[in-house]
Design a protein that fits this description.
Elements: H1 12-28, H2 42-66, H3 70-96, H4 103-113, H5 117-133, H6 138-164, H7 169-190, H8 193-199
Helix pairs in contact: 2-3, 2-4, 3-4, 3-7, 3-8, 4-6, 5-6, 6-7
């Protein structure tokens, strides 16, 4: 019928978001086909980088308005390094393993994978409630949850390096160790800055 209206098709952004969510859910369950939901282009990589950068820009503006100190500026720069360092390290490792062609898609998926901590947090909270009902102390339950979430995120990084870069299990483990070393350096750099910012 000429007068009937066709159903409105979802926009490209909505389709892209649904594809990313689908890819994350697949990767979060250890399904390598989740990588197919991510593009390996420059624009896709920048799109994955934009949410943490945007959030950090807002946080930095608020922080510097309240505490315009040298320590606060150094902390902001360190936080930016915390976002940018993992892709830099993973690219170096991909070059070392001869997998530079596989890196863009892997890097894009890795940027989005940090959001998997949100769905992983829900069962962790349910487990916390169960442990508390069993009489476990809040402190011990908290440590168990941190260990479980940390273990899951480490496994996820290893799985993504293994399948995303197409390297062996040992090489994937070494890649994760390099990423952990970078995160540790960032944490060490932030440790003396936090008290100075809070006191300022």
């Amino acid at each position: 019928m000429s007068g009937s209206k066709r159903p409105k098709q979802p926009g490209r952004a909505a389709r892209s978001f649904r594809t990313i969510v689908r890819g994350l859910l697949l990767l979060g369950r250890g399904r390598a086909e989740g990588f197919e939901c991510f593009e390996g282009s420059r624009d896709a990589f920048l799109a994955g980088l934009s949410p943490p950068i945007g959030f950090l820009l807002v946080l930095s503006a608020l922080l510097l308005l309240q505490r315009p100190t040298v320590a606060a500026c150094c902390l902001v720069l360190t936080l930016f390094c915390a976002i940018l360092l993992p892709p830099v390290i993973s690219q170096a490792m991909a070059r070392l393993w001869g997998r530079t062609e596989q890196w863009p898609r892997y890097a894009t998926a890795s940027l989005w994978s940090v959001w998997l901590v949100l769905p992983a947090y829900l069962p962790a909270m349910l487990l916390t409630a169960v442990l508390l009902q069993m009489g476990v102390s809040h402190e011990l339950a908290g440590r168990v949850i941190v260990l479980l979430l940390g273990g899951y995120l480490l496994w996820l990084q290893w799985f993504m390096a293994w399948k995303g870069l197409g390297i062996g299990r040992v090489k994937a483990g070494l890649t994760v160790l390099a990423l952990m070393a970078g995160s540790t350096l960032i944490g060490v750099a932030m440790q003396p800055l936090l008290p100075l910012v809070m006191e300022g």
